[in-house]
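Dear colleague,

As promised, here are the two records you asked about, laid out in our usual form so they can be pasted straight into your sheet.

NAME FIELD: protein one
SEQUENCE, THEN STRUCTURE:
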Amino acid sequence: MSIHVIASNETLLASLRSIQQQNALPLDSGRLRTPDSSLLESLKPLDDAPAGTIILLDSPIRLASTAHDDLAVLDDWLRTRPQLNVLLLSEDSSKALLTRAMQAGVREVIPLPFNPAELAKTLQRWSDRARAQAEPIHAADAGNTAASHSTPTAFDSPGRLVAFMGCKGGSGTSFVAANMAHIMADEFGKNCAFVDLDLQCGDASFYLGSGANKHSLSDLTRQIDRLDMQLLASCLHAVTPRLKLLAAPHSLETAIAISPQDIEKVLSLVRSLHELVVVDLQRNLNALTLKVLDMAGVVYIVMQSQTPDVRDAQRLVNMMRDLGLHETKLRLLVNRYKSKGWVSLSEVEKAVGLKVQHVIPNAPDWVDESLHIGRPLSAVNDHNAVIDALREATGSLLKSNPPKHRNWIQRWIGQPA
């Protein structure tokens, strides 16, 4: 793990050196950036920096466009170096700069003037993350697993990416996303991948196979430089012949080391091998979720028809609009709907500012067994209002009529009627 500083003046450079020395943090290099030089010149010596390297950079406000120009340079530079951790020091704390910085791949924006104690804690935190990021997976294990999988074939055009995001914890987002992915593959015959990006609380691995997957997303991102079809195949868990699962990391330590650039590279490869890619997102907006939302063709916002959900959905949708997310992507899905609940569908639409596209009824008796044993709902109970509503939503997404109902023999052999 190494730390490199690029500063715009001697005073700041000396202060940063002093903080690192006082806290026993390694300073591999400290560069002074001249007023008339481009950021790319200062970054060039770090072109081949190893994974986990921390770059502490300040973006001075000499001109109104300086910070924007620096972020444009960083955006291009980090696309081919997603393993690096850039921390930006800036006097500008506006929402516009924070959003642009996240989109460019900056890991954290630190306000200037900085608090020395807080900066020391931040550097120590990222140093700890860098060590986790640099740890490779067990090479022999990955090689043996890869050998047992056939290398998938790429499609001519990238698959469609469909993201699911809950406006509130406990809204059933993972259940809805996992079951719609299963329906796409098992009943509509689509070659589908499910990527669990709820990095801290990933439940989809259990919903789609009782958590039987051995490898996870972090096994790819920790060796992102050698990511290819064979390595990806070694980490995909086959739920059904047409549905593959890329599980969330098994530990928080490995999850926090994953960068937006890592996710972009992984999802781009997954999309090249599947017709549809379903992504279950954590519900907070950050650099990682923004990257996925930018890549997505459709974004389902999942909520319940309760007052706290309505308030959170309204806030989430407004934030997405402020961040420039195109409204045509958004589809509002009301889960666990009760016709005599506290908030009507018309009131939901008025408050959130989006039309309710799909309604999944509340039927805990049917759903609980599926959740308890870790199997898709259609495999547990194929005749209920919840699975019918999920089929309708899936058919709407795919612009195709739901498949004909199957008898038990056809469900058992996995063939559509």
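NAME FIELD: protein two
SEQUENCE, THEN STRUCTURE:
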Amino acid sequence: MTELCFPLGFRSATAGASIKKAGRDDLALLLMPEGATAAALFTTNLFCAAPIHLSRQHLKDSRGHASALLLNSGCANAATGSIGANNASACVEGVAQALGVDAQSVLVNSTGVIGTQLPMDRILPLLAPLAAEASNAHAQASLEPYARAIMTTDTRPKMAAREIRVGDASVRVSGVAKGAGMIHPNMATMIAVVMTDAQLTASELDQVLRVAADQSFHRISVDGDTSTNDSLFAFASGQGPRVELATLQEAVTAVCEELARMIVTDGEGFTRSMSVRVRGARTRSDATTVAKTVAQSLLVRCAVTGGDPNWGRIVAAAGRAGITFDPSELRLYVGGTEIFAQGQPLLCNPDTVRAAFNGPHVDMVIDLGATIGVEAELNADGFLTSGLTEEYVRLNADYTT
């Protein structure tokens, strides 16, 4: 197993500002002392938070360069007007001044309750000590303190890493993420940071990040809500060797996929996960549409939560996805058992079907039959989500109280 630590060229420090709750770290500073190429994907929500606006502008102005990233949990700094915008700028200026770098090389984001202001009287005095700690050559190498500091309703830190051997040297890809509720594509609600010491241009990093996100964070949902603060940051310090882009893409995608699975399996009130893979569509876009529709069906997800083998909800959701296919050609497999084909249920052992719906993970495969063979596999896509539980409702009914 690859050690869960930062790649070369990255350091971090965390601190507690009692933003939402006293006694835990809720500020996390990531430092790239020699600078790094940078790329990011942000929420498509029109109410995007003040730090999103600022980070997006800084990435543009710096042409994909960064020296630091400041994150906080406990307050989203979203829907906070001009005060929130000024607070985000003050955080950036404080970090930049402490590090002696240009403000446009500092990125920032927040996560937590929407519509509350950051406690700047507690945050600003911590920025210089944070910068000094992160600048220390002996700064914490483990990802865990950083991953813990950005948690909100997460029950555990989310970290992943891969290592690529390049002759006698190596390239590391490491990532952390937070997310348990308001999880949905474009971006999937979360904050994630992926780092590598590979040598990459900003455009190469952006390309790698977009492919990885499309195969991971854009293929998960917990509750269908896209947040105001979603972001996926990527940084490359360039302090390791150059590696073939396809090889690096594989490693970055693997890290993102692992983090995405962690988000789903830590979903608020999580009991079991479910995956929907659709193959045999006319186009890959059609497969994506059907997979998303089934995975986001509240009725399907409730059946999964209860371990109820009510597979009729699955085919019904596929039928309302809005794409054209012949229902008599559809085949449905759950847990590897084919239970529906040629427009009718198949004779199956009821205990086998029930068991397929009662494990820790429910695996669904839908073959639309519009294409076959190699073409059927090309015109395929999948989606990962979880059951919808009473505990999820309880947590979100009491989120601010």
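A couple of things worth noting about protein two: The first strand starts at residue 11 and ends at 15. The chain has twelve helices and 14 strands.

Best,
R.
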